[in-house]
TrEMBL record:
Keywords noted in UniProt: Bacterial flagellum, Cell projection, Cilium, Flagellum, Signal
Predominant place of localization: other
HAMAP family assigned: FlgI
Classification via PANTHER family: FLAGELLAR P-RING PERIPLASMIC PROTEIN FLGI, FLAGELLAR P-RING PROTEIN
Family as reported in the entry's similarity comment: Belongs to the FlgI family.
Keyword Signal: yes
The protein's assembly and partners: The basal body constitutes a major portion of the flagellar organelle and consists of four rings (L,P,S, and M) mounted on a central rod.
Source organism of the structure: Noviherbaspirillum album
Organismal lineage: Bacteria, Pseudomonadati, Pseudomonadota, Betaproteobacteria, Burkholderiales
Subcellular locations according to the entry: Bacterial flagellum basal body
Protein name: Flagellar P-ring protein
Amino acid sequence: MAGAAFAGMLAALPAPVHAERLKDLASIQGVRQNQLIGYGLVVGLDGSGDQTTQTPFTVQSVVSMLQNMGVNLPPGTTLQLKNVAAVMVTTSLPAFAQPGQMLDVTVSSMGNAKSLRGGTLLMTPLKGADGQIYGMAQGNVLVGGVGAAANGSKAQVNHLSVGRISNGATVERAVQSSFNRGDTVFLELNDSDFSTASRVVEAVNRRFGPDTASAQDGRVIRVRAPATSDERVSFLGALESINVTPAQTNAKVILNARTGSVVMNQAVTLDSCAVSHGNLSVVINTEPVISQPAPLSGGQTVVTGVSQIDIKKEPGQVLLLKGGTSLADVVKALNAIGATPQDLLAILQAMKAAGSLRAELEII
């Protein structure tokens, strides 16, 4: 079964945590991309554009465009447009982008156009969250999908209402950056973790000297940097290349409610609990085993737990697990007695609610 294969893979997860480059664990505050969006028209379609009776904004956009070009339509004129589609144009403005730089854009139909294949995007301003124009987009739309109709039947491969224009936008305005201001930069960990933040500070100070870095909290780290731009770029290049061993993250179990997939980021053990689900019962308890040394041997008494799984296919199926059982073993055992993925999801949710499953449970 797929679940059993997942359990086998999870049980084989390696325990050691390896060193990672700092650039993979953190980013520099202020060095980020900015989303841009614009509304435009795609023309030149082969009869696959918006149906203007159902998308009046397409007609309004065409009329407004013609008026801006000095073309005034007679009052009462009704446009029947089949080769025009209203679209939204989106892209991201990279950090340090300068005027004249080219960007790829995505063009998405917002009406009921059947296809954007063969169309041309007219000049479209791209605005940021502040309402300012940062780019202009225009060009031929490339659609990766294919559609065909013959003898009353239709066939379609991929999506026809979304296309892409390579180098379809030109940057018109640069975003102001605080990169070269002051004598400090701030690192932001991708995931807040006090232990990892402490290790990053130790690694940076070991590489560049004491008091170079200091942690402000579990995510932000303050780093003293050179004032001149050239030295700062070299410094940050060396900073990002430092190897840091991140702290072990919290145990997490990801459940896909649609497919039944189970993914764990590390080995997870379960505490005592009892779960009843339909005709299936899951009982988990801890049974200590005491090992005593021989008389006068000088050894010590050791208390350990027994981890075993006993599956009984009897009326009211019982799955018995003892002592620190691994969640991977539970998944494997549940699949062995025919539990469905939905049964598995319900049981793990119940274990989490009862406090037996101490890992973070996320359902997607």
